[in-house]
């Protein structure tokens, strides 16, 4: 009879066995490779369970005499591979500190906690250290772009192109996703790239990618247009087979879907969105999208890409000066490029010209205020990059800052005027009121009081002398 400890040991093994399942790699002498799990074996053969398809399992018996090599994997090795932890490094471009932390905590820390003291856990710890180092760089304002680290100062000056690059990457990521409308969503990003970052070299680089996406979207729309009548008919046939509550619920769901589609389409048309919503049940939306695809293809093919690249390379220097708040140097480049014959990016160049003009006006105003108020500092303050990411548009940030400085100066002037007025009022209260001077007849009398007194005294003297002579007589 087995002891209690032996029984518990067997129970423990039985419980742990599923948790310690292995993935095994068997190489036959013929060169064939089999990936699966050895479920039993004896001196002559082994039984291997493997995936016939991703969802269907099968098993087979393999003679050991036919086997060249057997590699058995541990649970940690299996999990490390299944969770694709080996693909984390090198990290992607433009990652934020939050994204780094999510990988460290959600993927690697949980793996280490589950598989402690394994070679795979040690590898994960090394990855955590590298990710933490990269995260600290991001928090200091640095950024990883095209596999290289850019210092904080350079990243701040070049944030216009960095954001264009980010949008370009996002466009391509959407185009390769599994979303049903992946090409439509990617083309919306391309339109934003053209509108907001048309002066960036990364917009030029994105043109060729956009043409490839347009081609794929054209094929998708062509198929959808062909299948639309079939889809509509299938839905109608499906409704005919429903009765009672099932029919009502389905009809309500269809009505809600159609209402949402129409509302989204109306709003997008109101907002002048180029790439409008489409529905596989709405032939008009599909036809309109196909027409937009053909128009966009024609426009992009007509662009002188080499000439546009040259223009945008020059504009990049101008944009960096604008980001620095240096309107003088930016104006030099603008004057040069705006006079080029056959300017391709004319609208974009003009928009930057307007920004430079506004910067010059603000600078002139600051100079005037500096002359009037020499003690007032007009030195612009610098803004450090955020921990997560850079501003999406340095030009807009610069103009926003200039406007803020302008408003601040106006507020200070109003405050000074109010203080001057208050000071005058206080001074008026402290000064004693002036003595009123007599006017009219009284003024004349007051002015001649000494003369009148002399006359009165003379008359009095004469009267006294006359009286005295009468007495003596």
Description of the molecule:
Helix 3 packs antiparallel against helix 4. The chain is built from 16 helices and seven strands. It starts with a helix and ends with a helix. The chain has a five-stranded antiparallel beta sheet with strand order 4-3-2-1-5, with no helix packed on it. Strands 6-7 form a two-stranded antiparallel sheet. The chain has helices at 4-16, 75-82, 97-114, 119-139, 152-157, 159-175, 182-196, 201-240, 244-270, 283-301, 305-324, 327-338, 346-372, 394-430, 440-447, 449-472; strands at residues 24-28, 33-41, 45-51, 57-63, 67-72, 143-145, 148-150. The chain is elongated, with a radius of gyration of 44 Å. The chain is an alpha+beta fold. The longest helix is centred in the middle third of the chain and has 40 residues, at 201-240.
């Amino acid at each position: 009879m087995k002891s209690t400890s032996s029984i518990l040991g067997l129970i423990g093994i039985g419980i742990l066995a599923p948790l310690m399942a292995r993935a095994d790699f068997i190489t036959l002498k013929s060169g064939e490779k089999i990936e699966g799990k050895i479920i039993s074996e004896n001196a002559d053969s082994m039984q291997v369970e493997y995936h016939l398809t991703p969802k269907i399992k099968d098993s087979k018996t393999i003679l050991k005499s036919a086997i060249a090599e057997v590699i058995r994997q541990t649970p940690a090795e299996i999990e490390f591979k299944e969770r694709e932890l080996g693909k984390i490094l090198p990290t992607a471009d433009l990652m934020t500190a939050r994204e780094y932390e999510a990988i460290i905590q959600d993927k690697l820390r949980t793996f280490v906690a589950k598989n402690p003291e394994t070679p795979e856990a040690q590898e994960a710890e090394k990855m955590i250290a590298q990710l933490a180092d990269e995260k600290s760089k991001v928090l200091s304002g640095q950024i990883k772009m095209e596999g290289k680290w850019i210092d904080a100062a350079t990243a701040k000056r070049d944030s216009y192109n960095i954001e264009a690059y980010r949008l370009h990457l996002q466009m391509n990521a959407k185009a390769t996703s599994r979303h049903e409308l992946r090409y439509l969503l990617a083309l919306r990003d391309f339109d934003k790239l053209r509108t907001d970052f048309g002066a960036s070299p990364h917009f030029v680089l994105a043109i060729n990618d956009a043409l490839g996406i347009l081609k794929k979207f054209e094929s998708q729309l062509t198929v959808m247009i062909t299948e639309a009548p079939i889809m509509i008919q299938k839905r109608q046939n499906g409704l005919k087979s429903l009765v009672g509550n099932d029919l009502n619920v389905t009809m309500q769901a269809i009505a809600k879907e159609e209402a949402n589609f129409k509302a989204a389409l109306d709003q997008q048309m109101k907002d002048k969105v180029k790439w409008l919503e489409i529905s596989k049940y709405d032939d008009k939306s599909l036809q309109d999208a196909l027409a937009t695809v053909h128009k966009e293809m024609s426009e992009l093919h007509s662009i002188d890409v080499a000439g546009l690249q040259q223009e945008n390379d020059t504009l990049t220097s101008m944009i960096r000066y604008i980001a620095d708040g240096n309107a003088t140097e930016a104006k030099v480049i603008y004057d040069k490029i705006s006079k080029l014959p056959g300017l391709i990016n004319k609208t974009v160049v003009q928009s930057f010209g307007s920004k430079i003009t506004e910067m010059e006006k603000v600078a002139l105003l600051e100079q005037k205020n500096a002359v009037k108020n020499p003690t007032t500092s007009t030195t612009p303050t610098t803004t450090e990059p955020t921990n997560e990411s850079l501003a999406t548009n340095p030009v807009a940030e610069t103009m926003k800052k200039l406007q803020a400085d302008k408003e601040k100066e106006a507020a200070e002037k109003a405050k000074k005027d109010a203080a001057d007025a208050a000071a005058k009022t206080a001074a008026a209260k402290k000064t004693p009121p002036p003595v009123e001077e007599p006017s009219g007849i009284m003024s004349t009398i007051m002015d001649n009081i000494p003369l009148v007194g002399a006359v009165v005294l003379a008359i009095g003297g004469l009267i006294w002398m006359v009286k005295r002579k009468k007495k003596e007589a």
